[in-house]
Amino acid sequence: MTKGTVSGVVSNMVTLRVDGPVQQGEICYIKTGGDRLMAEVIKVVGQDAYVQVFESTRGLKVGSEAEFTGHMLEIQLGPGMLSHNYDGLQNDLDKMEGVFLKRGEYTNPLDEERLWDFTPIVQLGDKVQESDWLGEVEENHQPLKIMAPFQLKGTATVKYIAPAGQYKIHDMIAMLETEQGEQIKVDMVQHWPVKFAMTNYTEKPRPFKLLETGVRTIDTFNPIVEGGTGFIPGPFGTGKTVLQHAISKQAEADIVIIAACGERANEVVEIFTEFPELIDPHTGRKLMERTIIIANTSNMPVAAREASVYTAMTMAEYYRSMGLRVLLMADSTSRWAQALREMSNRMEELPGPDAFPMDLGALISNFYGRAGYVYLRNGKVGSVTFLGTVSPAGGNLKEPVTENTKKVARCFYGLEQDRADKKRYPAVNPIDSYSKYLEYPEFAEYIKNHINDRWIPKVLALKTRMQRGKEIAEQINILGDDGVPVEYHVTFWKSEVIDFVILQQDAFDEIDAVTPLSRQEEILDLVTDICEHDFAFDNFLDVVDFFKKLINVCKQMNYSAYQSEQYNSYVQQIKDMIK
Amino acid sequence: MATAFQKVYTQISQITKATVSLKAKGVGYDELATINGKLAQVVKIMGDDVTLQVFEGTGGIPTNAEVVFLGKAPSLKVSDQLAGRFFNAYGAPIDGGPEIEGKEVEIGGPSVNPVRRKQPSELIATGIAGIDLNNTLVSGQKIPFFADPDQPFNEVMAMVAMRAKADKIILGGMGMTNDDYYFFRNTFAGAGALDRIISFINTTEDPAVERLLIPDMALTAAEYFAVEKNEKVLVLLTDMSSYADSLSIVSNRMDQIPSKDSMPGSLYSDLAKIYEKAVQFPESVGGGSITIIAVTTLSGGDITHAVPDNTGYITEGQLYLRRDSDVGKVIVDPFRSLSRLKQLVAGKKTRKDHSQVMNAAIRLYADAANAKTKLENGFDLTDYDNRCLDFAKDYAEHLLAIDVNLNTEEMLDVTWELFRKYYKIEEVNIKKEFTDIYWK
Q1: A569, B142, B277, B360: which one has the fewest Cβ atoms less than 10 Å from its Cβ?
Q2: pLDDT in single tens digits along all 440 residues of chain B
Q3: B265 vs A396: CB contact, 8 Å cut-off?
């Protein structure tokens, strides 16, 4: 293997003089005072390799030795990752000793001693290709597939497959023979370089299946789909993280991967603390069972922050190849972009807009492109749905990360300072936000078959009403309450009903926090009935009075358990009010 | 200063306003050195060329100055002797007292493993309703005041520090005026709290670059008391904008490409490394905590500037002060202030109606703001508008003003009283479960 010696240090960028070939992105370890620091090649000039170190470089001296590994940054994939907490480089945080993260401590992401109940899928003599399912183990009630090696080229024949029984991850569970006659031992562990997308599927069609999140402003107003992409930009304090946590708690997914990328440690602690207690509303099991957390918080090394989103995406793709529905959340992609900026700056590259590297747009679009709904070779389907948050500098959406993300993400949930100030949570702007999926005929067909064919027209009508309500509010602001016809007030207050009853939702109320689709359907019908009702009022004060009362009853309804006696009585009250 | 084994270099090849470069071997990154007695730190190594950042500036350094490398990063001696003392940015006493004896710890140490943290859950009572009611603070939290330089943030911060039940209060003063330094000293002494206080002070008279050491010094001391002594530590950092200014000076002198507002591209990470030292440890490691209350001064209230903007994304909320001309008092602005951790204690450690009452009051206060706009634009006000305006005045006077000192139960009762005085029950939009009890 190639060796190198340190010839320069600037913060976490180190220059190594190398004695042999190195590849772009190759991982090496630099020895300093008993520690081994992991680093990644980011530029090579002649005999000098520039590497970014994933740790603090304090005390590093010229002349220190480095060893190259011959491979890029890769992670291990296998059973035993669910419910675990990893750092951006897939070190198991729970296996680390002590209160503080020690420099140069790397832990095994998988448990090598644990026994798994294995059931074979293939038989002797079967022909398989890379990623084909050879067998199955169960982890936290999820059927996990043991697949043919991702690196397998061409077709291979199954020469041995382990019988049903208990095995450890490194036990041989199959022997494959390639067309060239090469024998390959297969265990349960795969390796994959995180920067490369997995393409082990036959087709990636336009996604069309509604992904239920229980958040009304998403499901009803701007739905996301299985395998879809979306992003949530917003100034600080507008509720990005609360919204993301709500989605990760409630979404109907098999696996949820949360990449806490350069954000607050206490937010990750909240997940550690709450998820083991909370129940998945769809299966009744503990939320933590289906969750993996990649925690690279803002105080952890910057270079690993960039790696963390790729690590998370690679895990998501791994589960997708097993035919599972994966939801991947990254909070926040801006911190990842900033990590790129810090490095680009240290390498003295010519900067693009706002000092970000020039290829930022390409990196973002490649990353979002890895999500998707796919058909696997065996006809099964799997999906990676990706939702990222963006933290725009100064809350200004005209900045490179937001603009580049907007080009690729299909759903836009813009959080608005003004709504947050007024405590209208979730602060998703109802007018600027969009879901492109509402326009997909495939999606309309799905909704027609699974909900009803009135749903989408009703949603679109309410959206128009929100727009109209906003226009009227502006007119009232200019002309005064008496300066506009009474009907204008009615129209405005109808838009307030939509806002208060559908869009606003109390994430901290046990019942209101999650609204199942059937309940959303009922609310949508009810609010549509209110909006389509012709009211007759003498003056605007009566309008305000009436609608405040109506909204109050609607809110009590939202706070009541679905179809409880209380709930039904509130529904009846509302119906009586619009008779 | 040099001992027998330390090599002395006397050939400086380059001097800029903040840095000195020379040829040297065997030097470690981040290592300290003295240049004719002035402290400096290694910021760049390229082969034999070593660049040092000189904290107090390079004025008076000759090309033949004696450079001695100390073989260690900046460090602080920690022990119980720190209590009650005042130090400069290097951790040397400035109060005339003796040197500290204790374990020498490198500052800016490693981060806490996130899985070894505990979710904060202990309320910090300040008596100020604008904080306790609307933006409840929790131990282990990090939160700044966003304030213009003329606002009384240091006074409010000192008041919060004195009322909070902390075992140690550590003050990190960066670019503090001498007057403010004495204000803190006198306040602490007057409250008889000096023995709980440790101060690291860089005043406007000291070199600006030295400030960069202050937060790490303060937090290294904080970690000692929180980890080794299991104490509840409150760290006050004022003013973080001065700290950021020093960062931009250094990065500029090192020819780095600036990003927004001339700040270095690494500003977010630099600030996060400081603020993320706030932590609540679980009982299994002693149950100590570090809470950080900081000040970020704004220029004309502009929060889109890179420093407050990045800070807002790192800290768990922010507190704004504002002079309310209707009541003639400084209030904690309920609209823009936010404590992200409040839901961990509101309604759990406080009365169950806390969250709903808080939200309803702020919503009504927002309605009052709308009514005010209408009034200013010359429109007629409705009866509801007028009631909102009256409510807003009472609310600002009796709850939002910083001179309020109540417990949370009293704060809630006062709010209910105001609701009943000005509104109909359906106008407050509160769950029936609570109106049944408190709407009397």
Answers
A1: A569
A2: 445 567 899 999 999 888 899 999 999 999 999 999 999 999 999 999 999 999 988 999 999 999 999 999 999 999 999 999 999 999 999 999 999 999 999 999 999 999 999 999 999 999 999 999 999 999 999 999 999 998 999 999 999 888 888 999 999 999 999 999 999 999 998 988 889 999 999 999 998 889 999 999 999 999 999 999 999 999 999 999 999 999 998 888 877 888 888 898 889 999 999 999 999 999 998 999 999 999 999 988 888 899 999 999 899 999 999 889 889 999 999 988 999 999 899 999 999 999 999 989 999 999 999 999 989 988 889 999 999 999 999 999 999 999 999 999 999 999 999 999 999 998 998 889 999 999 98
A3: no
Q: How much is the ipTM here?
A: 0.88
Chain B residues lying within 8 Å of A262, measured CB to CB: 268-269, 272
Q: Which residue of B has its CA nearest to A477?
A: B374
Domain boundaries, chain B: 8-69, 75-106+139-315, 354-438
Contact B266 A85 (CB under 8 A): no
Domain with A561, as residue range(s), is 455-577
B215 vs A124, A341, B89, CA distance in Å? 65, 25, 9
Distance (Å, whole) CA A563 – CA A561: 6
User: Are B257 and A103 within 8 A, CB to CB?
Assistant: no
Question: Do A47 and A168 sit in the same domain of this protein?
Answer: no
Closest B-chain CA to A94: B115
Residue B239: is the preceding peptide bond cis (ω within 30°)? yes
Which CATH number is B75-106+139-315's, of 3.40.50.10840, 2.60.290.11, 3.40.50.12240, 3.40.50.150?
Answer: 3.40.50.12240
Exposed (0-12), middle (13-18) or buried (19+): which is A174, by Cβ within 10 Å? buried
The phi-psi region of residue B30 (left if phi > 0; otherwise alpha if psi is between -120 and 50; otherwise beta) is left
Rounded to a whole number, what is the distance in angstroms from the first to the last CA of chain B? 76
pTM, entire model:
0.93
Cβ under 8 Å to B: A residues 302-321: 302
CATH 2.40.30.20 given to domain B8-69: yes
Which one-letter amino acid corresponds to residue B44? K
Is residue A273 within 8 angstroms of chain B, CB to CB?
A: yes
Q: Report chain B residues whose CB lies below 8 A from the CB of A96.
A: 113, 115
Mutate to test the interface with A, among B257, B310, B436 (most CBs of A within 10 A): B257
| CB contact residues (below 8 A), chain A span 81-140, against chain B | 85, 93-94, 96, 98-103
DSSP symbol at B344: G
Q: Measured between alpha carbons, how far is A294 from A99 in angstroms, rounded to an integer? A: 18
